[in-house]
Amino acid sequence: MCSCRLWKEFVSGDGNILSHRDKFLLATNILYIVGFEKDFLDALKRNYPDSDRNKWRYNLNWMRDREYKPASCSNCKYCNSCNHRSNIVETLKGKKLITFNGNHDFVSVDESFKQISYELKEALKSKKDQIHLISGQTGIGKTSLYIDAINSGKYKKPLLIAVPTSDLKSELIQRIGKENIFDIPSFDDLPLIGRRFDIQQYYNQGDFEKARQCIIECARDVCEPEELNKFRVYLNPQIYLEQTSSCVIMTHARLLSLPDKILKRFEIIIDEDILYNSILVRVGSIKISTLKKILEKNYLSYAKREMIQDLLALKEKKCCINRDYIPNEIDTRIIKRCKTNDNIAEFLKAGCYMKLDDYIKYLPPIKLPKCKMIILSATLDQTIYEIFFPTRNIIYHEVKQAAYTGNLIQYPAYSMSRTAIKNIVLDENSDYPTLSMLFEKIISHTNNVVYGITFKRYEEALPLGYTLHFGNLTGTDYLSGKNGIIIGTPHFPTYLYELIAYSVGISEKSKNSYKNRQVSYKGYDFIMMSYKNKILQKIQLYLISSELEQAVGRSRLLRTNSTVYVFSNFPCNQATFCNIDYLKDADDPEGNIDNYLINTMFF
């Protein structure tokens, strides 16, 4: 039985008739409690028959879209006579918005490191084509383990190390030593003076033949043997990989482009979660106008023209699978005839499509090489890998977590999503009419922060010496030991979640399903915008959690006495939660419901 007197009075119909202001106070809160919206509308019908329920439905959706914060109990007429908490959500639920129901069974950093070392050695002993997932926290020392494995030279097959970026690859080569590992260059490693942009454009358009020709031309102007060798290896990696007996290092993207036959010559160790970093978030788009022009020119095969016609006929936000998948490269003559900057080749080879506004969004096939591989990362999720690779033998090596040496302090009062930040600044009555003012207010709740992480579009407004943005965090070590601030819940576009889910046979309309609801993830129960379908929900939470884990990991809290402050309503592991309303002044800690009622459609 709930202890909110106002809610009891509203639902039962007993006592005084509630004013519009009372009902509005309830409305801002029941949005955040599963099932209460229906109870609210039913009570209106039963006890307030003159109410316009359709208008209330519209108003509830309007508040939800603008991420209205639950109004405080201090605004209630029963504030001094009711056994309440800080707002009606917490009063009705009888608990905090974020709760932890898991088990913090931490071990020492050294013990956790020993477990990872043992599990890596066990995985390297295996001879079957399995996917080994070894969970290891950021900063635990995973990199040093496979460097030791390279230097030991005791494995029958040479090791192949795959990392997310060229920058991280360069750092590791310095640590390992050029003489101890063979580098497979990526595009970013080539000295393409004055030609990089043009060649990148050819790649973006899927004209790989033209890109290759330009790279060969650049190679002719190179005199230094070491630089010339980069071109040779880049252009012909398979030849060198077939011949070498050395350990090898490359990027995730290079690994995914190579045939299984070549990869089976090596013991593959993948640094960081390749599914998250290099596969799931690679969504492309092509203009519908471009596809119509291609159809007019009649360049493609009948099957491909029919596929495009079917895509153009899709209803808005509807998905479909590519049932005429072509794994081989598209004839470059066709690409040249199409005369477009869109990547026709990638589009035609995609695995899943969605029609969205004036574009067709597409997701490349979700594939991993069919060979043994070992993945070490802080963001691995066994269930996610089993969803996307149901026919593969996935071995999860569980490693106990170590407690942070540093501090992780989280403020969950606001979601701080892109939309939430935008609405705070654009609100006519906002105390923070600019991003700089908003960020300065948030930073005032921290101590001695050196760097900040937020969304790319808002990064320049952070008044700090070092700034980064979500999506560009992997392998950043120079912030180790420094205090930092993270502002934002890194939601991905709903079309990305739905495309990914559709690729594994899950279809759910965000219009009807994507709303505030109670969710559970890694032992935490909390409320956020999410889906009803549990698998789709799991995919969404995995992606958000992975990005936040990357952000928190920049300070290397595991081994340094630094502090990271997170302003997000998505719970971070090992965080200490501070539930204050950090945007309100000290003399107005609870806020006032009248601020919500100004300039809305309710009056």
Automatic annotation (TrEMBL):
It comes from the Bacteria. SUPFAM superfamilies: P-loop containing nucleoside triphosphate hydrolases (SSF52540). This is Helicase ATP-binding domain-containing protein. It comes from Anaerobutyricum hallii DSM 3353.
